[in-house]
C-alpha cells in the first residue's frame, strides 16, 4: 500500500510537475461536461459511455498490454479491489453523469460535482479514520466558496432559487461513486504500474458496460445521426477525460493523497467558464474572476507545506 499520507505536502514530491498533474484532469473533465451536454439528444448516454471507454481501451492497450500480462497474477491478488474501482470509477461514474445530464442543468451539475472533495473528506473520516487539519478545512471551504460564486453568478440569492430534479439525484450518486473511487484507489499497492492498472480498469469497465449498451441499442435508443461532430465528440471523451485524465488523476492521488487530489476537482467550474469563453464565445465576468481566484486560493493553501 502507499506509504504517503494525505498530510504530506504536495510541494515535497515534485513541485510544479505534481501541480500540473493535478490541474490537467479537471480541465479535461470540464470539457467532458461540455461535450456531454452538447450531444444530449444525439447520442444516448449508455452508448456514449460505452463508446468512450471502448476508444480509451484501444488507445491504451498498445502501451499497457505488456504490463497487464506481466502483472496479471498481482491483479488476481487484488481482484475485488480492482473490480470495485473499475465498476464505480469507469463503469458507473460517467454513465450516471451522461444519464443525469439529460434531465438537469449545467449549473446544477457543476454545483453537485463540487461536492466531491467534501465527500472524500467525509467518507475518509467516517470509514478510514483520516483526519482533516484546520488548514485543510479552511482550504476546502475557501475553494468551495469559489464554486458557489461561479454557480450563483455572484448573487447569493440565486442559490435559493435552484431546483433539483431526478437528474440531480443521478448526478449526486455519480459524485458518491467518484469519492469512493478516490479513496479505494489509495489502497491499491503503489508499486503496481499505473498504466497497466488503468488498462485493466478500462477493460473491466468495457465488459461491464457491454450488456447495458446492448440493452439500450435493442430498445431502440441509437445515435440519431453520425457526422463529424459526433465523431469528434467520441474522440475527445475517449482520449482526454478518459485515458489522460484518469492516468494523471491516479498518479496525483498516489503522490498527493486522496483529499488533496480531490480538492483540485473544484477547478472544473473554473475551467468550464474558461472553455465557454474560448469555444462558445461567452464573456468572462467579474464574478467568475473572483470565483476562480477563491478556488485557486484554497488549492494553494492546501498545497503549502505545514510548519
From TrEMBL:
Residues spanning the membrane: 12-30, 50-68, 80-98, 110-128, 137-156, 168-185, 197-218, 230-249, 261-280, 286-303
Major localisation: membrane
InterPro entries tied to this protein: AA-Vitamin_Transporters, EamA_dom, EmrE-like
Topology within the bilayer: Multi-pass membrane protein
Compartments, record wording: Membrane
Superkingdom as given in the UniProt entry: Bacteria
Residue ranges annotated for the EamA domain, each copy included: 19-151, 167-303
Pfam families: EamA
Keywords carried by this UniProt record: Membrane, Transmembrane, Transmembrane helix
Gene Ontology cellular-component terms listed: membrane
Protein family: Belongs to the EamA transporter family.
Protein name: EamA/RhaT family transporter
